[in-house]
Design goal:
By secondary structure, the protein is an alpha/beta fold. It folds into 3 domains: 36 residues, no CATH class; 170 residues, Vaccinia Virus protein VP39 (Rossmann fold); 34 residues. 34% of the residues lie in helices and 21% in strands. It has 8 helices and 7 strands. The chain has a 7-stranded mixed β-sheet with strand order 3-2-1-4-5-7-6, with helices on both faces. The longest helix is centred in the last third of the chain and has 19 residues. The protein is globular and about 50 Å long. The termini are far apart. Keywords: Methyltransferase, Transferase, Ubiquinone. This is Ubiquinone/menaquinone biosynthesis methyltransferase. It comes from Streptomyces rimosus subsp. rimosus. GO terms for molecular function: methyltransferase activity. It holds the Pfam family Methyltransf_25.
């Protein structure tokens, strides 16, 4: 699962026994060499699905990457936005890695990074596109309302909040039991160890996420994406949630 440049078992153990913020500060230099980084095929498919949906000749003016990590999603926003792109994360280490990844001569759109908590985003009507990749599992179900409300507030009228979401694996699959076991281990860990490390794979079902987005004021659709892997029953393995602010 990990390349030779990735973290050691000891480093992963130290991370898992830290807070979410501290854990990602420690993991940041090697994060892109782990399977936790969103695969390029998903990033590319997301960009393709959103292309042409912007208000300015199919492009968006300003884009926001919520929980940007090391900046994997910044390239998606740069391909879709023409004015500016902002990446937000609360891990200083991840933001440092993201800034290093875009080091070099400035180009359009400009990219800036900001340390902020996604549950209290400091923006109002500043963007017409927001994305997030692989971050929802770091929020307890009760916290999603604050995240979605903050994104809704940050978007201009007509703005889009988009993110990929995986279809649940069938109960007879190995992946189903792997994710179930992982979540169970994390719950036990958080019962007996402080500070908590919030990372759950099974708390962000499409139904729950759709309900929370609608409660925040979004109109929600789920778009199919080209090249999505198929499940045994032939249905797509993931889709793109597109939530629009009226």
């Amino acid at each position: 699962m990990f390349s030779p440049q990735g973290p050691t078992l000891r480093e992963l153990t130290v991370q898992a026994l830290s807070s979410v913020e501290r854990g990602y500060d420690l993991l940041a230099p090697k994060f892109d060499h782990t399977p936790f980084r969103t695969p390029d095929r998903i990033l590319e498919a997301t960009g393709e699905a959103l292309r042409g949906r912007g208000p300015s000749g199919g492009l968006f003016e300003a884009g926001l990457d919520v929980c940007c990590g090391t900046g994997a999603g910044i390239g998606v926003l740069r391909s879709l936005c023409r004015e500016r792109v902002v990446g937000v994360d609360f891990s200083t280490g991840m933001l440092t890695a993201a800034r290093q990844a875009v080091a070099g001569p400035p180009r359009t759109p400009a990219v800036t990074y900001l340390r902020a908590d996604a549950r209290a985003l400091p923006f109002t009507a500043a963007f017409d596109l927001a994305v997030t990749f692989g971050a929802l599992g770091h929020f307890l179900p009760a916290e999603r309302a604050a995240v979605f409300a903050g994104v809704h507030r940050a978007l201009r009228p007509g703005g889009i909040f988009a993110f990929p979401i995986a279809a649940p694996p069938p109960p007879r699959s190995a992946l189903y039991w792997t994710l179930l076991g992982f979540d169970a281990v994390m719950r036990v860990r958080n019962l007996v160890w402080r500070p908590p490390f919030v990372m759950y794979y099974r708390t962000s079902s499409l139904g729950a996420v759709r309900a929370d987005l609608r409660a925040a004021g979004f109109a929600v659709e789920v778009m199919p994406v080209r090249g999505a892997a198929r499940r045994p029953d032939g249905s797509p393995g993931w889709g793109l949630v597109v939530a629009r602010k009226p």
